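Hi V.,

You were right to ask for the full record rather than a summary. Here it is.
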Amino acid sequence: MRILHFTSSIGWRGHEQMIIDIFESLRDNNFVKDQMIICPKDSEIFKVAIKKNLKVLGVDFKSEYSLSLAKKFKNEANKFQPDISFLHNSKAHTIAVLAAMVFGLKTPMVLFRTLIKNVGTNFFRKYKYNYKSIKKIVCISDPVSNILKLSIKDHTKLTVIGSVVDTDKFIIRSKNGFLHQEFNIPLDYKIIGNVSAFCKVKDHFTWVNTVEELYKRGLKAKYVLIGEGSMQNEIKDYARSKGLENEIIFTGFRNDVYKCLPDFDLFLFTSKNEATGGVILESYACKVPVVAANAGGIPTVLINNETGLLAEAGNSIDFANKVETLIDNTIMRNKFVQKGFDFLMNTSTRLIIGTEILSVINEVTTNVVI
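Predicted structure:
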């Protein structure tokens, strides 16, 4: 079995990590014989793949409607001869469909979808989602699948496979004062943190508002935001306008999140339309309790009052109340971190997700008709 992965992504976020996790899961569990990633040559995933010695081909990716790239994708697919192509984002999806439509690529395709977003009424967009070569659409959560049902004619193409976590990377870690030392945080201060890109959907405004409320209430804590993105400076300015420049620590992008997470006393996640929340699962792996928004696909991985607490999206007072409820309640914290860890190990390890993806591969290759 040979799998070709294709993405147009330039940056590095949860979905790009998921591609690597899927690749390594299929490899390490001997589920497939060979794999290759095609991606932009100036992308972060290209750099990671090279570092990890994964088979990867870097290409110039200037437009999702590039016929020259579609032709190159077809030619490279013919050389590699995959049994299936995994399409990991919308632009790669477009190129692959053009390769089939215009240049006759015959490889069956599986699309991975991680956004809670309607396809819309654009003719080509609807067409490419229903294109005959797209044999399966793997949705990361039920909300993603449900919104696609509005545009997908054959609902049997849709299947749900959740986020994957490299548990070997996270569960070996424990709290050791790493962040306290790096940022000169007094050891008697709690650390409340978040790891996410600075973009609209993550709702960092509510995060800052929650910090403001907790600061007013006198909670002895510092607040750590890990990540980068287009709204980073705007959020910094907003925090400054609230007088919180000494309370919120902006670390920027870090490639050692697996070391940072265990030092959080609580993970605060205000995202208002998250497809699932893979970083919540990583928090479970690190035994860090979570307060998150009751929005999008988050309730599919965070069971309220079982594995964490859900707060009303956009409601900083509710978030602050939930943080206060949990931060010093040892019994509740212990319950949540154990239940969360069990949830992770029962649903989202590389072996479990790899096995579910293998089932999709077997279904597609058994019933393939192009």
